[in-house]
Amino acid sequence: MRLSKYFLPTLKETPSEAKIASHRLILRAGMVRQASAGIYSWLPLGLKVLQKIEAIVRDEQIASGAQEILMPTIQSADLWRESGRYEDYGKEMLRIQDRHKRDMLYGPTNEEQITDIVRHAIKSYKDLPKNLFQIQWKFRDEIRPRFGVMRGREFLMKDNYSFDLDEAAGRHSYNKMFLAYLRTFARLGLKTIPMAADAGPIGGDLSHEFIVLAPTGESEVFYHKGFEDFDAMGEAAVYDKDLQPLVDRWTSLYAATDNKHDAAACPVKSSDLKTGRGIEVGHIFFFGTKYSEAMGATVQGQDGETTPLQMGSYGIGVSRLVGAIIEASHDDAGIIWPEAVAPFQVGLINVRSDNEASTKAADALYAEFLKAGVEVLYDDRDERPGAKFSNMDLIGLPFAVTIGPRGLETGIAEVKNRATGERTEIKLSGVVKHFAKP
Ligand code: ATP
Ligand code: MG
């Protein structure tokens, strides 16, 4: 993409309403534009990142055996009356009436909707297990939307729902998601800690939140320092074995958010206990028959008896992750994208667009990048070099390749690693090869 053609409305000034780095940076980098409180339009650069996150989330869901569906954003209130949550959910639910005065709502989550689908389609134990996921917009009328896309009112969530015959099988489905979440966040370049959580309005008694440590996190968290040696990247995507030992290992060390932590009852000695702040990026629940019983989602077991389905539900805040990743990875100059979610892998800077030889060489390099399938953003604008460098730092592409008249004389381009700041010189003829994936 040529920057001269790209729709990238970056801001020079820091927006005053933005209190934390990720909010400032998504606005300054022209990734999103606020439409109204907690509701955002996604602009090309932001959408690219959102879609990359989505792709990794989807990939790990599919690897775990879940199947993708897409449910509507607008749901019928009647389903929620069946589960008893229509009244319970309170003011966070956006309630709508259609022209026939039927009560509808913009879904804040989809337990009722999926239970309705499944109760009509799954009748026998032979149809189990099933795990269905979607990546769909949700609406929650948060009392205090803030921190940009981290706490929006409209936000993109991956949600899925598991259906099993008995508790042991349901527990296995839960464990599969536990592993899928560890892998998903690790691939996104994040270090997360699973913490025992209260199930809240979803119900049930088995629940974990996946928390990214960041100084601006909304909740205070407490965890055993041993977590610093845990590495989710090392967890293989093997799902057809007993996953309890893996879950036990990851939950053997103490970790709790402030609403669960009790200093008096904390089993960790203070020299081993770390305190920090965290951002919840995922939350998993096993709640058994809460919805299946209320809504009549049953199957015939092997012995012919009718039993309610065992269910779990699982959520990842896909749009929140855009902010969470920036919180975990930025500096004073701007964003530092992990390669896995970077909107482009390489920024190409022609320092002298007024110089014919420099422009010719940069154009040629750009064409070569495109041919090699490297995602490149080419700053071909007629701007001062300083403005180009700071713009690249702001939008945070992993690498910036610079060419100008001086390098041309020696046939050299400079490559800067955004994360480390390290600069290396590479022969012009070898630049694209350096980045092309074999
Ligand atoms: P929180 O405690 O942050 O309000 P929650 O516990 O109400 O979140 P869940 O119902 O567990 O949220 O939703 C699953 C995931 O969706 C959360 O882990 C979070 O990543 C994301 N999420 C929830 N609310 C929002 C929001 N208002 N804006 C963006 N993402 C959200
Ligand atoms: Mg939650």
In terms of topology, how is this protein built?
Layout lengths: L20 H8 L3 E5 L2 E4 L1 H20 L3 E2 L5 E3 H7 L1 H4 L5 E4 L5 E4 L4 H11 L8 E10 L14 E11 L2 H21 L4 E5 L9 E8 L5 E6 L19 H8 L3 E3 L15 E16 L1 H6 L2 E3 L5 E3 L1 E8 H11 L1 E2 L2 E2 L10 E5 L5 H16 L4 E4 L5 H11 L3 E5 L1 H6 L1 E6 L5 E5 L3 H5 L3
Parallel strand pairs: 3-7, 19-20, 19-21
Antiparallel strand pairs: 1-2, 4-6, 5-6, 7-8, 8-16, 9-10, 10-13, 11-12, 11-13, 13-16, 14-15, 17-18, 21-22, 22-23
Q: How would you characterize this protein structure?
A:
The protein is of the alpha+beta class. The protein has two domains: 21-335, Bira Bifunctional Protein, Domain 2 (BirA Bifunctional Protein, domain 2); 346-435, Anticodon-binding domain (Rossmann fold). The chain is 31% helix and 28% strand. The chain is built from 13 helices and 23 strands. It has helices spanning 21-28, 44-63, 77-83, 85-88, 111-121, 167-187, 244-251, 290-295, 318-328, 356-371, 385-395, 405-410, 431-435, and strands at residues 32-36, 39-42, 67-68, 74-76, 94-97, 103-106, 130-139, 154-164, 192-196, 206-213, 219-224, 255-257, 273-288, 298-300, 306-308, 310-317, 330-331, 334-335, 346-350, 376-379, 399-403, 412-417, 423-427. Strands 3, 7, 8, 9, 10, 11, 12, 13 and 16 form a nine-stranded mixed beta sheet that branches. A five-stranded mixed beta sheet has the order 20-19-21-22-23, sandwiched between helices. A hairpin with a 2-residue loop joins strand 1 (32-36) and strand 2. Helix 1 crosses helix 9 (318-328), helix 2 packs antiparallel against helix 6 and helix 2 (44-63) crosses helix 9. The longest helix has 21 residues, at 167-187. The protein binds adenosine-5'-triphosphate and magnesium ion.
